[in-house]
Amino acid sequence: MELFVRQLVNGLALGSIYSLVAIGFAMVYGILFFINFPHGEILMMGMYIALILMGQLGVPFVITLPLAMLLTALLGMSVEKIAYSRLRTVRRLAPLLSAMGVSLAFQNLALVIWGAKPLPYPVPDALRGEGLMVVGIQIPRSLILIFALTIVLMIGLQVFFKRHIVGIAIRAVSQNQTSAKLVGVNPNLEISATFAIGSALAAAGGLLLGVRYGSVYPTVGFSLMLKAFAACVLGGIGSIPGAVVGGMIIGITETFAVGYISSAYRDAIAFAVLTLVLLVRPSGLLGGRTEAIV
Amino acid sequence: MAGQESKILEEGSRNRFAGMLRSLSGVDERVIYGVILVLGLALPLAFLQQTYYLRIGTLVCMYFVLALGYNAVVTTAGLFDLGYTAYFAVGAYASALLMLHTNLSFWIIFPLSILATLVYVLIVSVPILRFKGDYLCIITLAFAEILRLVLNNWLEVTRGPLGLPGIRDPQIFSYTFNSLIPYYYLAFLVAIAALILVNRLTYSAVGLRWSGVRENPDAAESVGINTHRAKVHVYLVGAGLAGAVGAVFAPFQGIVDPSAAHLDNTVIILTMVILGGGSNYGLLASAAVLTVVPELLRGLTTYRLLALGLFFVFIMNLRPGGFRFSVLKHFVLPEWEKKPGEDKQVVAPAVTHEIVFGSAAAGKPDGGSADVPREVILRGENVTKRFGGLVAVDDVTFELCRGEILGVIGPNGAGKTTLFNMITGTYPPFAGDIFLRDRKITGWDPHKIARLRVARTFQIIKLLPNLTVLDNTMLACLQESAAWNGHSSAGEVTRRPDEEAIELARAAISYVGLAGQEDTIAKNLSFGNRRLLELARALATQPYLILMDEPASGMNPQEVRELIDLIRGINQQGLSILLIEHNMTVAMELSDRLIVLDHGEKIAEGTPDEVQQNKRVIDAYLGREQEVASG
Q: Could you report the per-residue pLDDT of A125-158, keeping only the tens digit for each?
């Protein structure tokens, strides 16, 4: 029983990270109907940025987190401007290929700069060791950080979408770009904001992943992107709550499968779940845009 | 035979069917293939001592085959599979395992490995083909990644990351493949065979179906093409080729390891396909360049992929048109790139308007005379459709008799198109049944209904935009031969469309008044002509019943006039017509009988005059007078 609860807590933590990554993925899909292939690579660059800040420049964690999120947001925005903005009106494969190119370029750029070997992630002392006792289970401080930060970011996102003018405009553009333009919304701004927020959340997810699991390497983003995709489709593509639910399900399933079965196929589990769910319910768990998928 | 064949090709179309014998600045393509063949065969003689070059030559052949297979899947059928290298890996591992653990001859193992790949594809295609577009791309990528994980972790069988070394060389009788020369010839043979296979398929009915899947699956379904099956076919061909290359690669390399399933391989083959621009020379040249250049710049692998990535971004921004980009374009100008009208000779259609499209149907019985028994050919019983809480079509019953034009009218949102979509199989009814003659077709797939000689047109025009008028129409003639009666033989699958089919397509085109435009790319047609092309496509399936979804919408009054005459003409050939129409002039003038829908319910039925007098119809269109009066 104790093992079960411990696994559940670990699964929720992993699921929180996947959810943060999946939100950005879902947001871009929601507004551009397009799969942001290099989302994982942007996350990976965010992890390296944080590594430089913390490890080499000695910036404290409290400042590293927002700074890395900011820099990654800028990176995400630039990717959109350079690689996608001219391809917005082009349907089908051109933006996807361009996105794949970005992904490939980032991965190999990281390989050139930092090498293929996983680099150890500096964990601040404040986050080491055990934290709270909850129902007889010791929860490590890093997990508490993951839960706290995820909750704060998700509440922030909710408020942003409901209250902030840009958040409302993003929702408008994602529902109908033409109509949004007619009432004076500049979609360029909203699309940039979407990429910025999505990338910043990915950076936060990456940083938490680094703090929890301790290393970064050039291909770390690739499997995360695949899982974020699985989470989005699982929850219903384009839906942000769906992405969160999907991320949680995948995180928990993965932790239990690793804990009780084997760790060899941990990266395949997300897709086993996805395939099973889609064979039963093609539109994902929370509905979403079926016609685009099937 | 060859003479007749080239005549068919000439007449068939100036674009796709002529592809095999396309001329290159006046040189017959057969000469070019001959030169490549001789050069390829002679290559080992030039490099007897430099085995390094032979190795590169062998790799070029293998990459060429991979590019051919991938090109069929991605460019021809438009299925963006990012896990293509997985099929190569399956073939390679099957070959390696069999070579290591059995004493079978390589010549038995080779087909067995291909078979293993095909079985693998058939299994993964079940979940994969549920997706399309971007989703297909990621899901295939994920399946390749899972395969790599399995190869990495299934230590007892694959030895994990170490791979399977020490694969023995193949033998022919007592001769062992102990140098690179036999390997080169083997790869060369595979390349030639692959080229012939892909060419045969691409420029045949099968290839046109694949293009239909890429361009517009709904349109393809509407003329009786089973698009799911076409997708499985193209996957089998593409993956089979990759498996064949894998099977040869394993003994050639002597070792296989999980990197065979790595995304990087797919990326390299994809680059070849993009650079190749869809032509065989292009694929060959880009396979050669992309194999030779990295060999010359060894040690720069990382930079190579970095450069490839930037190259993708750059190219797509420069030429977002997609895969048509080709550096070789200036040397080989494919016919379809020529401007429409260029060097075109309008040949008078061999068949005149007299052709009877509804050949199966008898002449139109006199609709007026009561003594002719009315034969019901389409019947709906209590058809109902719900979308969530909304009842779009509520308990509608209708009949359509042979030779009749049945109009369906109603205000916006009355459920006309929903009813239409249930008849054509786009979605099944919630309740009720639909019968074609006496056959219950409730819930059938669109292509199955189409194969019962029921054609349709779409309210929002669905054509194959990048193919010519003739190819668009030809698509509808494909079912006639092989798949029509459910039996097909291998010979029929790969054959080119015959003269009869081409004649039929041409006749349909000229019937609707598009003669002379056969070689125009569909997307360049005017709006009205696109509608006519849809009609020509429908006619080319030789239907006895045509379902038309608002054929007059978006047309100008002159075009509407012509359309009315055209539809009446079609009807007089003996075809029955179900006409959904918003335009009252068209509906009233053409229909023998009308049914009127409002809020999903059938509120009236009868001749145009009766319907026009009907109180409920007037109320539905103009609002209720008494309500206004009584307040």
A: 777 777 677 666 777 888 888 888 888 988 898 8
Contact (CB<8Å) A104/B143: no
Nearest residue to B56 via CA among B290, B359, B356: B290
> In chain A, which residue's Cα lies nearest the Cα of B155?
A264
Residue A101 clears pLDDT 60, i.e. is over it: yes
Give A23: exposed, middle or buried? Use CB within 10 Å, 0-12, 13-18, 19+: buried
What CATH number does the domain containing A98 carry? 1.10.3470
CB A293 to CB B142 under 8 A? no
pLDDT, tens only, B398-412: 888 888 898 888 887
Mean pLDDT of B350-371: 41
**Tens of pLDDT, residues B592-619:** 888 888 888 888 888 888 888 887 877 7
Q: Going along chain A, which residue ranges are E strands?
A: 119-120, 130-134, 137-140, 215-216
Question: Within a domain: residue A217?
Answer: yes
Least confident residue range of A235-239, B64-68, B94-98, B547-551: A235-239
- Cβ–Cβ below 8 Å for B137 and A108: no
Contact A222, A31 (CB under 8 A): no
Least CB–CB distance from B317: residue in A87, A111, A294? A87
Structure tokens that stand for B548 in this block: 């038309």
Could B135 and A95 be called an inter-chain contact, meaning their C-beta atoms sit closer than 8 Å? no
What domain range is A34 assigned to? 2-280
pLDDT higher than 60, residue B169: yes
**Tens of pLDDT, residues A249-284:** 999 999 988 888 777 778 788 878 877 777 776 666
Distance of CA B129 to the CA centre of its chain: 14
Closest Cβ–Cβ partner in B131, B267, B308 for A294 = B131
Q: Which residues of B touch A (CB under 8 A)?
A: 80, 82, 127, 130-135, 137-139, 141-143, 145-146, 149-150, 153, 263, 267, 274, 302-303, 305-306, 308-317, 320-323
CATH of domain B23-333: 1.10.3470
Tell me the per-residue pLDDT of B101-112, one tens digit each, with 9 for 90 and over. Answer: 888 888 989 999
**What is the 3 state secondary structure string of B145-201?**
HHHHHHHHHCHHHHCHHHCECCCCCCEECCEECCCHHHHHHHHHHHHHHHHHHHHHH
Q: What CATH number was assigned to the domain covering residues B375-453+545-556+570-631?
A: 3.40.50.300
| Number of domains present in the structure of chain A | 1
User: Is A183 part of any domain?
Assistant: yes
Q: Boundaries of CATH 1.10.3470 in chain B?
A: 23-333
